[in-house]
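Propose amino acids for all 383 sites.
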């Protein structure tokens, strides 16, 4: 039989990890002597058997997707946060990476940066697998997923929704390195979905597991304690080169956040900027009752992204003197010098300043008075 496969995430995004369900189903059907074709467009009408794969819940689906009732859907986007295993005979099948070799045929491949090409090379050389079938306990037979390979595995790439919810996950990862004939003792860990933590102990424990820096994702939920920032900066530099996701509103009372929490956050942002540490600010959907606070968060993100985009020497050359929020917004017209796309115009920034002045005067003063922050007595203070 002939099966058509379509990975919409792979076609929509420039560099993303593969889809584990797709790779396992491809290997399973090929073992049964079926033909598997990974299509570059959504063309279910041309196949009697068509599988659709999507892991990212970004709302992007083909037009009239649900009218194709013969199309089978797979991936985390259809059950976010919940592990839904494939039939056990498929789960035990080592994944087929060959179907993704079509990346080399993409029109833009030759234009990919050296960094992007290296990421794909690392993905093709990794062992792709999951630790758990139910999302909570370690799968006893997980080694059945291993591809037979003469070379020892140097990267273990995991597809569990949240590794931090799996009991004994860190111990299981250490045990994987004991498969002496298959896995290198120094094998690095990468993951498709961010490990979600809400305390410094879990954060630092995950940073200590020998990570593949460019393939390792962490999300911190809630405001971090100020006291951990020096250690965090060091761990972040050692453990991951991608930006940590920082959900600054998770679990926080709304009134507390817009009065006190957001002032703490601004001091943390200054600390990140002072230490050239990149981080991605996110917040819960529909958290802000007054949507003008969303604009404040967008301004924070633009400020943080630009101020941490350069190394220390280049920062001094190009950005020194713009490191308070007021100075940054006053020079919006000069942002074109940095070849950065700006989301907020100078006029919009002026409106944001007016809104903050009326609703959080302490934060408004910080915009003018502080360009740095430092740790004193376990708390960040501005200067």
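Proposal:
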């Amino acid at each position: 039989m002939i099966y058509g496969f379509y990975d919409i995430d792979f076609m929509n995004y420039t560099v993303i990890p593969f889809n584990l369900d797709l790779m396992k189903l491809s290997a399973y059907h090929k073992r049964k002597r079926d033909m598997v074709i990974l299509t570059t467009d959504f063309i279910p009408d041309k196949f009697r058997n068509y599988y659709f794969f999507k892991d990212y819940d970004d709302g992007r689906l083909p037009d009239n997707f649900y009218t194709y009732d013969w199309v089978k859907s797979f991936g985390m986007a259809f059950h976010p946060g919940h592990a839904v295993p494939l039939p056990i005979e498929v789960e035990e099948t080592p994944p087929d990476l060959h179907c993704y070799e079509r990346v080399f045929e993409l029109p833009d491949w030759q234009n990919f940066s050296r960094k992007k090409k290296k990421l794909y090379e690392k993905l093709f050389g990794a062992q792709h697998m999951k630790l758990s079938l139910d999302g909570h306990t370690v799968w006893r037979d997980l080694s059945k997923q291993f591809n037979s390979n003469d070379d020892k595995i140097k990267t273990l790439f995991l597809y569990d929704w949240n590794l931090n919810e799996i009991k004994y996950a860190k111990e299981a990862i250490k045990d994987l390195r004991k498969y002496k004939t298959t896995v290198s003792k120094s094998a690095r860990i990468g993951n498709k979905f961010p490990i979600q933590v809400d305390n410094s102990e879990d954060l630092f424990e995950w940073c200590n597991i020998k990570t593949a820096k460019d393939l390792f994702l962490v999300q911190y939920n809630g405001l971090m304690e100020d006291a951990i920032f020096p250690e965090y900066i060091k761990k972040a530099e050692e453990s991951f080169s991608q930006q940590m996701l920082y959900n600054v509103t998770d679990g926080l009372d709304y009134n507390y956040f817009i009065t006190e929490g957001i002032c703490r956050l601004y001091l943390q942002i200054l600390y990140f900027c002072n230490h050239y540490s990149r981080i991605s600010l996110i917040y819960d959907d529909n958290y802000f009752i007054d949507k003008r606070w969303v604009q404040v968060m967008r301004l924070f993100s633009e400020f943080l992204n630009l101020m941490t985009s350069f190394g220390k020497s280049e920062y001094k050359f190009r950005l020194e003197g713009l490191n308070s929020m007021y100075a940054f917004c006053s020079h919006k017209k000069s942002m074109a010098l940095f070849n950065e796309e700006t989301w907020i115009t100078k006029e919009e920034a002026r409106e944001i300043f007016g809104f903050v002045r009326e609703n959080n005067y302490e934060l408004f003063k910080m915009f003018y008075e502080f360009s740095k922050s430092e740790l004193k007595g376990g708390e960040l203070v501005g200067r």
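DSSP finds 13 helices and 13 strands in the chain. Residues 313-318, 334-339 have pLDDT under 50 and may be disordered.
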